[in-house]
Amino acid sequence: MPKITYIDHDGNERTVEAKIGESVMETAVKNSIPGIDADCGGACACATCHVYVDEAFLAKTGEQQEMEKSMLDFAENVQANSRLSCQITVTADLDGLRVTTPESQH
Questions:
Q1: How far, in Å, CA of 54 to CA of 31, rounded?
Q2: Helix and strand numbers, DSSP H then E, in the chain
Q3: Residue predicted with more confidence, 92 or 106
């Protein structure tokens, strides 16, 4: 199973195993990762699962679709590597993925 490391704004890391086919957000919720609230349940209708994707994995997470781009307009401190974790599907290629939650989500 791929492993994902979630990092909070203070630098605290938590690494968990992820199930292929689930989203990075679903993995976070199942593992009680702080800072990923997922208020809409993964429907890409909020921005409470906003993360910063480690640059080494950015290309592997896929392209942002229009709906995700629109929802990121509601997020604070959006950066070039910002993604909604509900829109990133776990694959074997994402083993070792590192994502950081913004300070505004804590």
A1: 20
A2: 2, 5
A3: 92
